[in-house]
Known about the structure:
Elements: E1 2-9, E2 16-29, E3 32-49, E4 52-65, E5 75-86, E6 94-105, E7 111-122, E8 131-137
Amino acid sequence: KTTGQxxxxxxxxxxxxxxxxxxxxxxxxxxxxxxxxxxxxxxLRYRHDPKRLTRARLRLGYREQNDALFAGFDQAEYLLExxxxxxxxxxxxxxxxxxxxELRRNHPAWTADGSTSQVVPxxxxxxxxxxxxFFASR
Length: 138
C-alpha cells in the first residue's frame, strides 16, 4: 500500500485547511494478483476555535479484482463524510461525531449501498462506541 497527502492552509488565520489524499494498493496472495485499488480524496477542515473542528471529505476509488479469483467484482467506490470534533477540556477527552454515505458499484448484476453514523467518545478510559449498518442486494 502506498499513500500520500498534501495539506495546506487556505486562509491567513489558518482556520481553513485543505488536504489532498491519494492511495494505491496492490494485493497479492501466493504469487497471484488479488486486486489493485486506487483512491483519491479531498478533505476540508475548519477549526472554529481550539476546542471545535468541523471536517468534510470526498473520496473516489476504483478496485480492479482479478477475474480468475472472483469474476465481476470490479468496484467503483464513492464516499462522502462530514464530522465534528469537540474537545471540552485541555485533556485527552474528545467527542467526535461522524456521518458518512458510502456507495460501491460492482458488476451490473450487483449493487451495494451502505451508510453509517458514529458517535465515538475518546478519553482516558479509551472508550469507543460505534453503530453501523450495511445493505446489499442482488
